[in-house]
């Protein structure tokens, strides 16, 4: 370990390896990306970004190259991006993602970054749900920036079964009626992202990767959970108004604009405008070389989380 030129403790830099900056390190996909790179760093040097200084300190204490980067504070961008070749861009669940992404992309251009991999959403080009449209605007901005790009399009996270729609009192709730939706494990998203960043734009530049590995309705998911957990799990089929009411009661901690987009999403899945959410488009094996994780496999691996109650 050594002190870098601005006084931060950083891993020894190997100028022969591309530098990858991972944003969102402390989130559910970001944490899994840390594990992915720990297991197989490939021919890259990884730098991890976190918003809070104490999070940066924890990463450094574990021997990792880490920097502070707050997407709401562009003054933190220059140092974090110095010497970086590839960036993994992941923003929070808020309309602020528009400004955050625009300013980060601009800073990446200034810093000489060559490739951005962006985690977006699973949407058709003419989608009208606002949260999905925000991501598409970000994607178009990245494409017009002159940077090489790769877009990841995950469908409904399996991890939502421990957070947004958790097992509670022997049941789960879904807010898109009896419709089938596509599911993806966060570990698969992390594996695809890490592979893209290791291999770089020569292989993955200009590519869209779709991550929807299995379709299932709420009752079908409940059946899988029942079999895996060895106890009956019911499914409460709910709709958009129920989701709006849950938000109003404070049981879902979601920003107002993002919450409204979530309500609209459930309505559009039910009425068919977003019927494509219930499709399989599975690029996991194309990118990583290994099959994607099924709902049953995910539930088996996460039994403790499923029975522990809601998580953040």
Defining key terms:
15 strands, single chain, three-stranded mixed sheet, 312 residues, alpha/beta, 13 helices, eight-stranded mixed sheet
Describe the structure.
The protein is globular and about 55 Å long. Helix 8 (218-229) crosses helix 12 (295-301) and helix 9 packs antiparallel against helix 10. 41% of the residues lie in helices and 19% in strands. By secondary structure, the chain is an alpha/beta fold. An 8-stranded mixed β-sheet has the order 5-4-3-6-7-8-12-15, sandwiched between helices. The protein has a 3-stranded mixed β-sheet with strand order 9-11-13. The protein has a two-stranded antiparallel ribbon with strand order 1-2. Residues 1-11 have low confidence and may be disordered. It starts with a strand and ends in a 5-residue tail after the last helix.
Approximately what portion of the residues adopt beta-strand conformation? 15-25%
Uncertain regions spanning at least 5 consecutive residues: 1-11
How many distinct beta strands? 15
* Coarse structural class: alpha/beta
Helix content: 40-55%
SSE pattern, N- to C-terminal: EEEHEHEHEHEHEEEEHHEEHEHHEHHH
Main-sheet strand order equals 5-4-3-6-7-8-12-15
In a nutshell, what does this entry contain?
The protein has 312 residues and is of the alpha/beta class. It has helices at 28-39, 53-61, 77-81, 97-111, 130-144, 186-199, 201-204, 218-229, 240-248, 256-271, 284-288, 295-301, 303-307, and strands spanning 2-3, 9-10, 19-22, 45-50, 65-68, 86-89, 115-119, 148-154, 156-157, 171-174, 181-184, 207-212, 214-216, 234-237, 281-282. An 8-stranded mixed sheet has the order 5-4-3-6-7-8-12-15, with helices on both faces. A 3-stranded mixed sheet has the order 9-11-13. It has a two-stranded antiparallel ribbon with strand order 1-2.
